[in-house]
Amino acid sequence: METKNLTCIGCPMGCALTVTIDGDEITVTGNTCTVGANYAKKEVTNPTRVVTSSVRVCGAAIARVSVKTATDIPKNKIFDCMAEIREITVNAPVSIGDVIIEDCAGTGVKVVATKNVAAK
Amino acid sequence: MKQYDIVIIGGGPAGLAAAISAKNAGVSDIMILERDESLGGILNQCIHNGFGLHTFKEELTGPEYAARFIAKAQEMEIPYKLGAMVLSVSPEKVITYMNKQEGLVQISAKAIILAMGCRERPRGALNIPGFRPAGIYSAGTAQRLMNIEGYSVGKEVVILGSGDIGLIMARRMTLEGANVKVVAELMPYSGGLKRNIVQCLNDFNIPLKLSHTVVGIDGEKRITGVTIAEVDANRQPIPGTEIHYDCDTLLLSCGLIPENELTREIGVEMNRVTSGPNVDDKLQTGVEGVFACGNVLHVHDLVDHVSSEAALAGENAAAYVLAKAETESAHKVTLKAENGVRYTVPQTIDVANMRDSVTVRFRVADIYHNRSIAVYYGDKKVMSRKKRVLAPGEMEQVLLKKDSFKDYPDITEITIRTEEA
Ligand SMILES: Cc1cc2nc3c(=O)[nH]c(=O)nc-3n(C[C@H](O)[C@H](O)[C@H](O)COP(=O)(O)OP(=O)(O)OC[C@H]3O[C@@H](n4cnc5c(N)ncnc54)[C@H](O)[C@@H]3O)c2cc1C
Ligand code: SF4
Predict the structure, then answer these.
(1) Is B265:B9 a contact under the CB 8 Å cutoff?
(2) What is the pTM of this model?
(3) Which CATH class is domain B122-254?
(4) CA B145 to CA B155: how far, in whole Å?
(5) CB distance from A62 to chain B under 8 Å?
(6) Model-level ipTM above the cut of 0.85
(7) Relative to the alpha carbon of A33, which ligand is closest?
(8) B72 closest CA partner among B7, B11, B8, B115
(9) Domains detected in chain A
(10) If both were cysteines, with which of A52, B3, B236, B340 could A68 make a disulfide (CB 3.0 to 4.6 Å apart)?
(11) Partner residue facing A12 (CB), from B48, B198, B394
(12) A17-33 pLDDT per residue, tens
């Protein structure tokens, strides 16, 4: 049996959640509503995050174009994903939604541009 | 001198939303003056996501949110100038700006919308003697350096202040390979959003030390370390609690203040708490035809609120220009913030000429559990809403309907306060 303490981010209450994992049995206490319970279950079974960063851009008035993973990726892939993002350089122009990386760190998720950058 | 119907100072989310709604309300002779080389304001450097949940029902990054409003403004052919720094505004609504193409220019406007945003509290926050070596940045400056200009800011980092920008930068620098050692917060609570504490600090096991401040900085040319200490109830460092961290970078995230040099020059009445101008329910300042919205009026944490507030300012400025609005105020009521409510925006309501409803926004002074927010018309309580938690970092609002004033024809004061539930 394992217990974890989390803070719910569902609303400003920020309930202090305690999750007990006993095999397949997951119990959540400390939540005021079901949002907290669902959040805690997801956090202990399959936590995911959207990663946002920026990559070098050549031939533009600014040095970086911002990017994000198109959907959330497993939390433990964040640093692998960042390692790939850090290697990338793109050329202006770039438009929002342009695919920067097709499959980031084997997650099957694209990395896309989040800023329009004109060529200089 | 060229005259415009409406001149908007600042092309961030507030300026853009104001322009769009002014044009929708029937005024086309608009000019947005933006000192930066692009529209979008501070959102251009806020590359994290979490913007627009209320407005677009999806989570956008800052640049994506800005792009939607920029595209809309361009589609509506709203004129704007970039690299145009406004230097002064007179009470007669003469605006002086400067840009590369035109040099120094004077224009006049029938109505002005102030949308200059805010800037970070300067280093004064770091109230300690000694050297000021390199490697000390405000969090927002570091954000701009990294996300737009592409510099690597530092490797071993301490952050003072747990406002949202500090939290966001803790994650950002961690993702870029830096080691963020600690976030020290002077207050016993964080001014940042819960979600940012969880996703920017807890996710990466970055410790948050509440009631702590920086008491010493090492290094002459470049910072080599900082010492933090716990503070007592009077925010004085407690001897013996010092902890030393080696670092090459110190970020300061000590809050934002509205950028109101121009506003003061116009001579409008300012608010001591918000550092913005006092406004009525039309978001009009003390000078007729001068409106304010967004972070220049009061610091917002959600851009969605900025956009809706600014849309209202735009609409009212248009109505003023088209002279649809009643200018004579028949029944002006003052809003009073009390007992844990720090301020309200607007500060006055013209009940006779108000719209069907007005949203009153405010912040509380401390973290409160199980209190209610009560609204009094004169000394009669007309509304009370129980809240399980209230926090200074989260803006609150109440909606006052025009109908609700029917039975109170003579009130002069509305009070908004917190009360034990
Ligand atoms: C670091 C940071 C993180 C944030 N994170 C979030 C978030 O996660 N979610 C969310 O919803 N909100 C967030 N916000 C809040 C939101 O982004 C802001 O409230 C919003 O951008 C404010 O819009 P604004 O138009 O009032 O100001 P700004 O965006 O600051 O725009 C003001 C504009 O006016 C221009 N200007 C100023 N003075 C002059 C002058 N004299 N002449 C000409 N132009 C001038 C400036 O260049 C600027 O472009 C964040 C804010 C910051 C600072
Ligand atoms: S459990 Fe419910 S009430 Fe508590 S923080 Fe989460 S969403 Fe809010």
Answers:
(1) no
(2) 0.92
(3) alpha beta
(4) 14
(5) yes
(6) yes
(7) 2
(8) B11
(9) 2-45 (no CATH), 52-113 (3.10.530)
(10) A52
(11) B394
(12) 999 999 889 999 999 89
